[in-house]
Amino acid sequence: MKDIVIIGGGPGGLTAAIYAKRAGCDISLFECMSPGGQVMTTPEIENYPGFVGTGFDLSMKFYEQTSALGVDIQFENVKVLKKVDGVFSLECESGATFSAKSVIIASGARRRKLEIKGENEFTGRGVSYCATCDGNFFRNKVAVVVGGGNTAVEDAIYLSKLCSKVYLVHRRDSFRASKVLVDRLENHENIELVLNTVPVEIQGDDKVNKFIVKNKLTDEIREIDADAVFVAVGTIPETGFVPEEVEKDSGGYIITDTKCMTNIEGLYAIGDVRNTPLKQVITAAADGAIAATYAAEYIGG
Ligand code: NAP
Predict the structure, then answer these.
(1) Which of 105, 115, 176, 277 is deepest in the core (most CB within 10 A)?
(2) Whose CA is nearest to atom 35 of ligand 1?
């Protein structure tokens, strides 16, 4: 049995691994894809003190530091997590099972879908949820970005350097994104803001060629000729494996105390899967440090 198992290898999980290992615990970190998490696809990090560069490079630095400490990383997809008689058990998609005295959930969140006609049909054929992964396919073409948060604004700015034109479609007339990012939109002449506007349908033949939208104030329908639609309308917490009795907020994010512990003793949640008021690399990393410190204390009795 492990002392601590960490589920998820984003900035929160990797930081928790560093702290737990340095506290002398026997740990494993479970990641179903490559370590790094959502930040891997962030074009530029400017708000993590001491580092300026791509999200990919920062993730690699976290990963290298974790590996250098000899953290055991299991490439497994956890499907079921239970606590029975004071011990946590984990069942993975592969059929493998593990047990631990304490668990830190760092599974993050996945991109929300638009849920409109054509979205599923054209996913991978013009519809994308990752501008840094797929933007290059649309060099000198026309792209639409949907959303009004940091991701959408960052994606629009990133794509404006590759694409001939970028439409940023947002359902309100003010942005949720940070002011510093919104102000930067003005410096990019090929970004057109389409505000107070909701998505209606994605059309095409074998690939996307039209994005249909509706102005909420006038009900006017507009057909935007576009080669790509980048969806950036928020995230959904990855909690499919989390026991039902773990308390969550109305959005499904796990509720914790100030030590990042859930309502189940020894079970912690950190980063984007937690109902944190600020979802950033630095807050996920801070959560990881807090949870690992208290998980180590918990297993020490
Ligand atoms: P977000 O902040 O939740 O924003 C989602 C946006 O999508 C909102 O503007 C929302 O509109 C819009 N939206 C939601 N559902 C929609 C729908 N069905 N149709 C059309 N529009 C819809 O999500 P995010 O931008 O992915 O960011 C997630 C978290 O990561 C945030 O906490 C963000 O601050 C953080 N993040 C930080 C950075 C950074 O610090 N540089 C970078 C990326 C992400 P409303 O505004 O009207 O609700």
Answers:
(1) 105
(2) 279
